[in-house]
């Protein structure tokens, strides 16, 4: 037999419940894999229905349509003479499983259910699926009638088994199983499996990619073998961006790397590898071989097929490569930009509208849209017909070719500076200059008339006229007047999003972009139903610190010189009256804490699972050089008081790109009450007791 096997993996931009589009992308990936000589093709987790179906998994329709897609795949000539490994939900004995369906030449070889389900953070797989708990056990699965008619099979193996071809042995993992402490690849490798496959639905988090790569490489470093990973990519209908990074590794080294961010709906990696390299690598690991001699064997499904060719001595094999990781600033530039593009084209809208204040947050959001325009122009230049077709539909021009990011930006991006009597000329100028440099269609307007009209209604009804603190009003009056301005801006943003293109004689409407960062959301430093209330928010999962670094990156890489003055200006809401024409209000003074402190609080609260007392205990050591225990106690108490008072705002938070593991997103990532006892009496008393002891 031959020794050089050619295998393919892919990253597909699948969309929840888009069975038509998902099938087309699967077919395309199989065609590419076969054209490059692959004899085995691996796809992402649940690729047939799309990973993000959520409670639609409960519906029998989802199961039915998944089998209908499988029927199309099985009967197609495109899937002949290549082992295809696809993902879909399967109901076995009235229990729903997350499965791999592996087939060859119109015959299903094995249905392999997922053993370890992802159930942390954004993942809720235990809500919809049951893990397969019968290790190394296989049962008969009775196929639906529509599949029986294609395959001629009544039953197929269902369970924890491996495939044996004429030349090698393959074993499957599914996403979370790679991350589990008792990953199946360990025992499978000891039992002679030489090729491990992993079908993932793994989403982007800043600074996470290296962890996935390290896990894949370490899986074969200790045990030898070939590891093939497929992943979903793109926005499949919610807050997550699945970031591709399909890869192939052998004996602890990467041999093929897919892109983390791109606008290509289908990306296929193919590698030819020498099985003898695996065998010789394993031969000298005596500890592995001793363990292998005692391993409990897996059920084996025999496959009359080879992944290699008989005469392959001269076939070139792939060599190890060095994985290139993106910097966090590059990740912010590319990930949210690709997510925005998917959202724009799939929502069938005509562009975005952003209230551009001239501050760091809205400017960073504008830069992400500008980066999206760069990605679109680059994809079209590289011959991506899908992107070109989407761009033409969005701008309503069948002959249009996006070549200049600034020109394309003007067609799809509207920015709006909403001035009030409390706005400075500096922020107005900064917003205008940035809009000019990125090319957006920019609007300047004044909201004072609308604000006075709303406050006037209140005065007519009550006979009282609220005043700002600087004019002798109470804090309640001042806050209410600030909130009116903020909420008027939200109303106007939606009005202009719906009618700006109409006023310009163009079809369609615009999606409103929000620009509240993760730290402000955590603290609740935003007005409920202000401009943070939008359709989507590309920076809602990104910290202020990372956004500042991203602004510097854009300044250097996009030559947006307007960002220089934006970076140097202190963050301000500009909702209180100016003093001598200058801004007197700053965000950090308003919040009573710095953005750097907020990031630390956020990571301790969410990632370290620290309540008030535990956070205090950690911070007295972290901050021992700069704060006394009593000062730390005061800071921790103030944070938790403000966090709990404002937690209700998270229930209406605009859907945001998920980028940080300390996001306070109330939808499904950070599940907490929104009505707290904000005195935290017991917890704070424990802190006080410790302070007194110290």
TrEMBL record:
Enzyme Commission numbers on file: 6.3.5.1
CN hydrolase domain: residues covered: 5-275
GO cellular component: cytosol
Protein's pathway: Cofactor biosynthesis; NAD(+) biosynthesis; NAD(+) from deamido-NAD(+) (L-Gln route): step 1/1
PROSITE patterns to which the protein is assigned, alphabetical: CN_HYDROLASE
Single Gene Ontology MF annotation: NAD+ synthase (glutamine-hydrolyzing) activity
Signal peptide: none
GO biological process, one term: 'de novo' NAD+ biosynthetic process from L-tryptophan
Keywords (A to Z) from UniProt: ATP-binding, Ligase, NAD, Nucleotide-binding
Record text on subunit structure and interactions: Homohexamer.
NCBIfam families: nadE
Family: In the C-terminal section; belongs to the NAD synthetase family.
Protein name as catalogued: Glutamine-dependent NAD(+) synthetase
Native organism taxonomy: Eukaryota, Metazoa, Chordata, Craniata, Vertebrata
Gene: Nadsyn1
């Amino acid at each position: 037999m031959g020794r050089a096997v050619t295998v393919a993996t892919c990253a597909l931009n699948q969309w929840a419940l888009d069975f038509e589009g998902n099938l087309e992308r699967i077919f395309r990936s199989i065609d590419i894999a076969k054209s490059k000589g692959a004899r085995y093709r691996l796809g992402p987790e649940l690729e047939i229905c799309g990973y993000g179906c959520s409670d639609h998994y409960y519906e029998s329709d989802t199961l039915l349509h998944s089998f209908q897609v499988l029927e199309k795949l099985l009967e197609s000539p495109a899937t002949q003479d290549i082992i295809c490994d696809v993902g879909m939900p399967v109901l076995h004995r009235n229990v729903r499983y997350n499965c791999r369906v592996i087939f060859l030449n119109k015959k299903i070889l094995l249905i392999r259910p997922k053993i370890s389900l992802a159930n942390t953070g954004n993942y809720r797989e235990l809500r919809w699926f049951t893990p397969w708990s019968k290790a190394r056990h296989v049962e008969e699965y009775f196929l639906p009638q529509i599949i029986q008619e294609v395959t001629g099979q009544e039953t197929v193996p269902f369970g924890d088994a491996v495939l044996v071809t004429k030349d090698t042995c393959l074993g499957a993992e599914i996403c979370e199983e790679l991350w589990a402490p008792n990953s199946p690849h360990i025992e499978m490798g000891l039992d002679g499996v030489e090729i491990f496959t992993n079908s993932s639905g793994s989403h982007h988090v800043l600074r996470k990619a290296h962890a996935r790569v390290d896990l894949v490489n370490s899986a074969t470093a200790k045990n030898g073998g070939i590891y093939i990973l497929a992943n979903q990519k793109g926005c499949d209908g919610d807050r997550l961006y699945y970031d591709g990074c399909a890869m192939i590794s052998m004996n602890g080294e990467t041999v093929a790397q897919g892109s983390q961010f791109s606008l290509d709906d289908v990306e296929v990696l193919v590698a030819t590898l020498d099985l003898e390299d695996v065998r010789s690598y394993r031969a000298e690991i005596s500890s592995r071989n001793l363990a292998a001699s005692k391993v409990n064997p897996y059920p084996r499904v025999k496959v009359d097929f080879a992944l290699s060719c008989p005469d392959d001595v001269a076939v070139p094999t792939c060599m190890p490569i060095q994985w290139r990781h993106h910097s966090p600033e590059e990740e912010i530039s590319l990930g949210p930009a690709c997510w925005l593009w998917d959202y724009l084209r799939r929502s069938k809208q005509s562009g975005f509208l952003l209230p551009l204040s001239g501050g760091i947050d809205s400017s960073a959001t504008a830069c992400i849209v500008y980066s999206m325009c760069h990605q679109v122009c680059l994809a079209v230049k590289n011959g991506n017909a899908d992107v070109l077709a989407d761009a033409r539909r969005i701008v309503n021009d069948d002959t249009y070719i996006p070549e200049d990011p600034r020109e394309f930006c003007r067609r799809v991006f509207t920015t709006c500076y909403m001035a009030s009597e409390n706005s400075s000329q500096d922020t107005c100028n900064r917003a205008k200059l940035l809009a000019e440099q990125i090319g957006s269609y920019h609007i300047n307007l004044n909201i004072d008339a609308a604000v006075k009209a709303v406050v006037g209604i209140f005065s007519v009804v009550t006979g009282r006229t609220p005043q700002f603190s600087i004019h002798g009003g109470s804090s309640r009056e001042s806050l209410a007047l600030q909130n009116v301005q903020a909420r008027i801006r939200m109303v106007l943003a939606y009005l202009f999003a719906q009618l700006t293109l109409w006023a310009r004689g163009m079809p369609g409407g615009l999606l409103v972009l929000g620009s509240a960062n993760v730290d402000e959301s955590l603290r609740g430093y935003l007005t409920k139903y202000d401009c943070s209330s939008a359709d989507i928010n590309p920076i809602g999962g990104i910290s202020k610190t990372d956004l500042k670094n991203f602004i510097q990156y854009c300044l250097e890489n996009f030559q947006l010189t307007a960002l220089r003055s934006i970076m140097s200006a202190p963050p301000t809401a500009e909702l209180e009256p100016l003093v001598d024409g200058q801004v007197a209000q700053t965000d950090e003074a308003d919040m009573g804490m710095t953005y750097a402190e907020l990031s630390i609080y956020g990571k301790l609260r969410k990632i370290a699972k620290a309540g008030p007392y535990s956070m205090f205990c950690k911070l007295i050591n972290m901050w021992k050089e700069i704060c006394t225990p009593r000062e730390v106690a005061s800071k921790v108490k103030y944070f938790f008081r403000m966090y709990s008072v404002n937690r209700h705002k998270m229930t209406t938070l605009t859907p945001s790109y998920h980028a940080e593991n300390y996001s306070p997103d109330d939808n499904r990532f950070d599940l907490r009450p929104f009505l707290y006892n904000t005195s935290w009496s017991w917890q704070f008393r424990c802190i006080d007791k410790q302070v007194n002891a110290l």
